[in-house]
UniProtKB/TrEMBL annotation:
InterPro entries: AP_endonuc_1, AP_endonuclease_F1_CS, Endo/exonu/phosph_ase_sf, Endo/exonuclease/phosphatase, ExoIII-like. This is Exodeoxyribonuclease III. The gene is xth. It comes from Sphingomonas floccifaciens. Its cofactor is Mn(2+); Mg(2+). Residues 4-248 form the Endonuclease/exonuclease/phosphatase domain.
Length: 257
Protein backbone atom coordinates (compact mmCIF):
# COMPACT_ATOMS: atom_id res chain seq x y z
CA UNK A 1 0.00 0.00 0.00
CA UNK A 2 1.25 3.47 -0.93
CA UNK A 3 0.22 6.41 1.28
CA UNK A 4 1.14 9.97 0.32
CA UNK A 5 0.89 13.49 1.67
CA UNK A 6 0.80 16.57 -0.53
CA UNK A 7 0.40 20.25 0.26
CA UNK A 8 -1.29 21.30 -2.98
CA UNK A 9 -1.25 25.05 -2.21
CA UNK A 10 -4.72 25.58 -3.69
CA UNK A 11 -6.64 22.48 -4.78
CA UNK A 12 -8.60 24.18 -7.56
CA UNK A 13 -5.83 26.37 -8.94
CA UNK A 14 -3.44 23.38 -8.98
CA UNK A 15 -6.04 20.79 -9.97
CA UNK A 16 -4.34 19.80 -13.27
CA UNK A 17 -1.11 19.15 -11.36
CA UNK A 18 -2.89 17.12 -8.69
CA UNK A 19 -4.79 15.01 -11.21
CA UNK A 20 -1.67 14.40 -13.29
CA UNK A 21 0.23 13.22 -10.24
CA UNK A 22 -2.62 10.99 -9.06
CA UNK A 23 -2.87 9.42 -12.51
CA UNK A 24 0.88 8.87 -12.87
CA UNK A 25 1.75 7.67 -9.37
CA UNK A 26 -1.60 6.19 -8.25
CA UNK A 27 -1.11 6.26 -4.47
CA UNK A 28 -3.71 4.25 -2.58
CA UNK A 29 -4.37 6.86 0.13
CA UNK A 30 -3.57 10.58 0.01
CA UNK A 31 -3.64 13.37 2.57
CA UNK A 32 -3.92 16.86 1.07
CA UNK A 33 -3.26 20.19 2.75
CA UNK A 34 -3.82 23.87 1.97
CA UNK A 35 -6.94 23.29 -0.08
CA UNK A 36 -7.71 27.02 0.11
CA UNK A 37 -11.31 26.24 -0.85
CA UNK A 38 -14.62 26.40 1.02
CA UNK A 39 -16.45 23.17 1.73
CA UNK A 40 -18.70 23.46 -1.33
CA UNK A 41 -15.86 24.10 -3.79
CA UNK A 42 -13.81 20.93 -3.37
CA UNK A 43 -13.32 19.20 -6.78
CA UNK A 44 -14.88 15.92 -5.68
CA UNK A 45 -16.14 14.90 -9.12
CA UNK A 46 -12.81 15.34 -10.92
CA UNK A 47 -11.05 13.32 -8.24
CA UNK A 48 -13.73 10.63 -8.25
CA UNK A 49 -13.26 10.20 -12.01
CA UNK A 50 -9.76 8.90 -11.23
CA UNK A 51 -11.20 6.32 -8.85
CA UNK A 52 -10.78 8.15 -5.54
CA UNK A 53 -13.33 8.62 -2.79
CA UNK A 54 -12.71 11.72 -0.70
CA UNK A 55 -13.59 13.53 2.49
CA UNK A 56 -12.51 17.10 3.12
CA UNK A 57 -12.57 19.90 5.66
CA UNK A 58 -12.59 23.14 3.70
CA UNK A 59 -12.08 26.79 4.56
CA UNK A 60 -12.44 29.80 2.29
CA UNK A 61 -9.09 31.14 1.05
CA UNK A 62 -6.98 29.41 3.72
CA UNK A 63 -5.96 26.06 5.19
CA UNK A 64 -8.14 23.01 4.42
CA UNK A 65 -7.32 19.29 4.54
CA UNK A 66 -8.62 16.23 2.70
CA UNK A 67 -8.22 12.45 2.61
CA UNK A 68 -8.49 10.47 -0.64
CA UNK A 69 -8.75 6.72 -1.06
CA UNK A 70 -8.94 4.26 -3.94
CA UNK A 71 -8.77 1.21 -1.65
CA UNK A 72 -12.07 1.32 0.16
CA UNK A 73 -14.49 3.55 1.96
CA UNK A 74 -13.34 6.46 4.11
CA UNK A 75 -14.92 6.38 7.56
CA UNK A 76 -14.35 9.79 9.10
CA UNK A 77 -13.53 9.60 12.82
CA UNK A 78 -12.58 13.16 13.70
CA UNK A 79 -12.75 16.66 12.21
CA UNK A 80 -10.54 19.10 14.11
CA UNK A 81 -8.39 18.42 17.15
CA UNK A 82 -9.91 18.02 20.61
CA UNK A 83 -9.82 21.42 22.34
CA UNK A 84 -8.50 23.06 19.19
CA UNK A 85 -7.27 26.56 20.14
CA UNK A 86 -9.05 27.95 17.04
CA UNK A 87 -11.69 25.56 15.66
CA UNK A 88 -12.50 27.98 12.81
CA UNK A 89 -9.27 26.88 11.09
CA UNK A 90 -9.50 23.67 9.04
CA UNK A 91 -6.32 21.84 9.94
CA UNK A 92 -7.04 18.26 11.05
CA UNK A 93 -9.02 15.39 9.55
CA UNK A 94 -8.95 11.76 10.67
CA UNK A 95 -10.49 8.64 9.19
CA UNK A 96 -10.35 4.86 9.12
CA UNK A 97 -9.34 3.63 5.66
CA UNK A 98 -8.62 0.03 4.73
CA UNK A 99 -7.76 -0.96 8.30
CA UNK A 100 -5.57 2.08 9.02
CA UNK A 101 -6.27 5.25 11.00
CA UNK A 102 -5.20 8.08 8.71
CA UNK A 103 -4.70 11.49 10.33
CA UNK A 104 -4.12 14.32 7.88
CA UNK A 105 -2.90 17.59 9.32
CA UNK A 106 -1.72 21.07 8.45
CA UNK A 107 0.19 22.50 11.39
CA UNK A 108 0.26 26.32 11.66
CA UNK A 109 3.21 28.14 10.13
CA UNK A 110 3.72 30.36 13.18
CA UNK A 111 5.50 33.32 11.62
CA UNK A 112 6.27 35.98 12.63
CA UNK A 113 8.03 34.84 15.76
CA UNK A 114 7.46 35.97 18.44
CA UNK A 115 3.82 36.92 18.24
CA UNK A 116 0.26 35.57 18.42
CA UNK A 117 0.70 33.34 15.35
CA UNK A 118 3.69 31.67 16.95
CA UNK A 119 1.80 31.23 20.22
CA UNK A 120 -1.06 29.62 18.28
CA UNK A 121 1.38 27.24 16.62
CA UNK A 122 2.73 26.12 19.99
CA UNK A 123 -0.79 25.69 21.40
CA UNK A 124 -1.93 23.70 18.37
CA UNK A 125 1.17 21.49 18.54
CA UNK A 126 0.47 20.76 22.21
CA UNK A 127 -3.10 19.68 21.34
CA UNK A 128 -1.73 17.48 18.55
CA UNK A 129 0.73 15.80 20.91
CA UNK A 130 -2.02 15.12 23.41
CA UNK A 131 -4.31 13.57 20.80
CA UNK A 132 -1.47 11.66 19.13
CA UNK A 133 -0.74 10.08 22.48
CA UNK A 134 -4.24 8.62 22.59
CA UNK A 135 -3.84 7.32 19.05
CA UNK A 136 -0.55 5.59 19.70
CA UNK A 137 -1.86 4.30 23.02
CA UNK A 138 -4.68 2.55 21.19
CA UNK A 139 -2.23 0.14 19.58
CA UNK A 140 -3.94 0.63 16.23
CA UNK A 141 -2.07 1.12 12.94
CA UNK A 142 -1.93 4.92 12.56
CA UNK A 143 -0.24 7.32 10.16
CA UNK A 144 0.10 11.03 10.97
CA UNK A 145 0.64 12.65 7.58
CA UNK A 146 0.81 16.23 6.46
CA UNK A 147 2.58 19.55 6.44
CA UNK A 148 4.00 19.88 9.95
CA UNK A 149 5.76 23.19 9.23
CA UNK A 150 8.79 22.04 11.20
CA UNK A 151 12.30 21.02 10.19
CA UNK A 152 13.21 18.57 12.96
CA UNK A 153 17.01 18.76 12.53
CA UNK A 154 19.71 20.66 10.67
CA UNK A 155 19.72 17.84 8.10
CA UNK A 156 16.20 18.90 7.10
CA UNK A 157 16.98 22.43 5.95
CA UNK A 158 19.27 24.01 3.38
CA UNK A 159 21.67 26.35 5.20
CA UNK A 160 20.13 26.02 8.68
CA UNK A 161 21.99 29.08 9.92
CA UNK A 162 19.62 31.22 7.84
CA UNK A 163 16.54 29.82 9.61
CA UNK A 164 17.45 30.25 13.26
CA UNK A 165 14.81 32.94 13.85
CA UNK A 166 12.07 31.28 11.79
CA UNK A 167 9.05 29.60 13.42
CA UNK A 168 9.64 26.46 11.33
CA UNK A 169 13.06 25.92 12.90
CA UNK A 170 12.54 27.47 16.32
CA UNK A 171 13.95 25.49 19.27
CA UNK A 172 10.52 25.40 20.93
CA UNK A 173 8.94 23.86 17.82
CA UNK A 174 11.67 21.29 17.31
CA UNK A 175 11.37 20.35 20.99
CA UNK A 176 7.64 19.74 20.52
CA UNK A 177 8.33 17.60 17.47
CA UNK A 178 10.85 15.58 19.50
CA UNK A 179 8.22 15.05 22.21
CA UNK A 180 5.82 13.78 19.57
CA UNK A 181 8.37 11.33 18.15
CA UNK A 182 9.25 10.15 21.65
CA UNK A 183 5.71 8.80 22.03
CA UNK A 184 6.85 6.00 19.74
CA UNK A 185 6.27 7.39 16.25
CA UNK A 186 8.62 6.54 13.38
CA UNK A 187 9.64 9.34 11.01
CA UNK A 188 9.35 7.26 7.84
CA UNK A 189 11.36 9.46 5.47
CA UNK A 190 14.25 9.79 7.91
CA UNK A 191 14.05 6.07 8.73
CA UNK A 192 14.59 5.17 5.07
CA UNK A 193 17.03 8.02 4.32
CA UNK A 194 19.04 8.37 7.55
CA UNK A 195 21.95 10.42 6.21
CA UNK A 196 20.42 12.12 3.20
CA UNK A 197 19.50 15.75 2.65
CA UNK A 198 15.95 15.09 1.47
CA UNK A 199 13.46 17.93 1.03
CA UNK A 200 9.72 18.32 0.42
CA UNK A 201 9.46 22.11 -0.07
CA UNK A 202 11.27 24.62 -2.27
CA UNK A 203 10.37 28.31 -2.22
CA UNK A 204 9.22 29.99 -5.43
CA UNK A 205 11.86 32.68 -4.96
CA UNK A 206 15.61 32.79 -5.62
CA UNK A 207 15.52 29.76 -7.94
CA UNK A 208 15.30 27.52 -4.86
CA UNK A 209 14.16 24.36 -6.64
CA UNK A 210 16.91 24.45 -9.26
CA UNK A 211 19.49 25.01 -6.52
CA UNK A 212 17.91 22.34 -4.30
CA UNK A 213 17.65 24.91 -1.53
CA UNK A 214 14.83 23.10 0.22
CA UNK A 215 13.19 22.18 3.50
CA UNK A 216 11.76 18.93 4.82
CA UNK A 217 8.51 19.98 6.47
CA UNK A 218 6.08 17.33 5.17
CA UNK A 219 6.17 14.15 7.23
CA UNK A 220 4.58 10.73 7.54
CA UNK A 221 4.83 9.43 11.09
CA UNK A 222 3.96 5.80 11.76
CA UNK A 223 2.73 4.08 14.91
CA UNK A 224 4.61 0.87 15.88
CA UNK A 225 1.92 -1.29 14.28
CA UNK A 226 2.60 0.37 10.92
CA UNK A 227 6.33 1.04 11.28
CA UNK A 228 7.10 -2.67 11.09
CA UNK A 229 5.42 -2.73 7.66
CA UNK A 230 7.48 0.14 6.21
CA UNK A 231 9.22 -0.89 2.98
CA UNK A 232 10.02 2.43 1.30
CA UNK A 233 9.63 6.19 1.69
CA UNK A 234 10.50 8.97 -0.73
CA UNK A 235 9.53 12.31 -2.29
CA UNK A 236 8.16 12.77 -5.81
CA UNK A 237 10.57 15.65 -6.24
CA UNK A 238 9.98 15.99 -9.98
CA UNK A 239 6.42 17.20 -9.38
CA UNK A 240 7.84 20.42 -7.93
CA UNK A 241 9.34 21.09 -11.38
CA UNK A 242 6.03 20.95 -13.24
CA UNK A 243 4.37 24.09 -14.61
CA UNK A 244 2.05 25.93 -12.20
CA UNK A 245 2.85 23.49 -9.43
CA UNK A 246 2.79 23.77 -5.65
CA UNK A 247 5.91 24.83 -3.76
CA UNK A 248 5.70 21.41 -2.05
CA UNK A 249 6.29 17.99 -3.58
CA UNK A 250 4.35 14.86 -2.59
CA UNK A 251 6.00 12.62 0.01
CA UNK A 252 5.01 8.97 0.28
CA UNK A 253 5.54 5.62 1.99
CA UNK A 254 5.03 2.06 0.85
CA UNK A 255 3.79 -0.49 3.36
CA UNK A 256 3.93 -4.26 3.15
CA UNK A 257 0.56 -6.00 3.09
Amino acid sequence: MKIATYNVNGVNGRLPVLLRWLKEEAPHIVCLQELKAPQDKFPEVAIRELGYDSVWFGQKSWNGVAILSRVGEIHETRRGLPEDPDPTQSRYLEAAVSGIIVAGLYLPNGNPRPGPKFDYKLDWFERLIEHAGTLIGSGLPVVLAGDFNVMPTSADVYKPERWLDDALFAPEVRALHARLIDQGWTDSLREMHPGEMIYTFWDYFRNAYARNAGLRIDHLLLSPALAKRLEAADVDRHVRGWEKTSDHAPAWIRLAD
